[in-house]
Amino acid sequence: MKKFLLLFSLIILPSQAFQDCVITTDGKLSDISIEQNDIIDVYPMFTIMNEKNILFVHPLKEGKTRLCVLKNNKNIVMFDVEVKPDETIISDEESFEVLGIDLPPEIQNDEDLELDLPPSIEEVR
Asked: Are 55 and 78 in contact (CB under 8 A)?
């Protein structure tokens, strides 16, 4: 039964390899609106200082959409967003930085993973 469930999940369930992104700026971001909210989700991130200047963009499916935010309660900024299977492309806007969050590389076997040994007691003294 376990083998059947594993095989079923590998064949039937789609895998998502979308790239999450972070948008940062030096001003307060508010009034987030998405043209097609079935393509991306956008979450504001709050820092300890409550600066409200970071947005987390999470793709849901492939496609193109636009994202609109209000910067410092006076400037409307529009981003074009394209979600591809292996990357998310967000247009460059002045005074904004877009950072892609990559998935860690897959480890093929135990030989690819190399860990340092802890120091022995004699070395510590």
From this structure: no
Q: In one letter, which amino acid is 65?
A: T
The type of residue at 75 is N
Relative to beta strand 63-71, strand 54-59 is: unpaired
| Predicted TM-score of the model (pTM) | 0.69
Asked if 100 and 86 touch (Cβ cutoff 8 Å), the reply is no
For the beta sheet containing 75-83, the strands, ordered from the edge strand earlier in sequence to the opposite edge, are: 29-34, 63-71, 75-83, 88-90
Residue 33 to residue 54: CA distance in whole angstroms = 15
Report the C-alpha gap between 107 and 100 in whole angstroms: 21
* CA 19 – CA 102 distance, rounded (Å): 6
Q: Could you report the per-residue pLDDT of 59-110, keeping only the tens digit for each?
A: 999 999 999 999 999 999 999 999 998 889 999 999 999 998 876 566 556 6
Please give the full DSSP string across 7-72, using - where no structure is assigned.
HHHHHTSPP--PPEEEEEESS-EEEEEES-TTTEEEEEE--TT----EEEEEE-SSEEEEEEEEET
